[in-house]
Amino acid sequence: MAHKKAAASTASQKGNRRGKHRGVKRYAGEVVSAGTILVRQVGSVIKAGANVAMGKDFTIFAKKPGIVGYKSITRDKKSVFVS
Q1: Whether the predicted model's global pTM rises above the 0.70 cut
Q2: Long-range contacts: 25-29, Cβ < 8 Å, 24+?
């Protein structure tokens, strides 16, 4: 039999992770260039509108240069566009 109890090294490290830096990166009225990240999110909380595309990790980015805008689709749904 072992004379020492095994320590749980991974369970104690759960609270020491860095943040994911998610959220809105460019707000309405800001001028952006093509490829600029507008929103980082989990799931499609904010939908992609005109001149905007969504990556495989639900990151929304600008396809063309312009001014960022947000529009309400319904009471609880929003979309982002670049005009």
Answers
A1: yes
A2: 26/68, 27/68, 28/68, 28/69, 28/70, 29/67, 29/68, 29/69
Measured between alpha carbons, how far is 42 from 40 in angstroms, rounded to an integer? 7
Domain ranges of the chain: 20-82
Mean pLDDT of the chain: 92
DSSP string, 37-60: EEEE-SSSSEEE-TTEEE-TTS-E
With respect to CATH, is domain 20-82 assigned 2.40.128.50?
A: no
Give the 3-state secondary structure of residue 79: strand
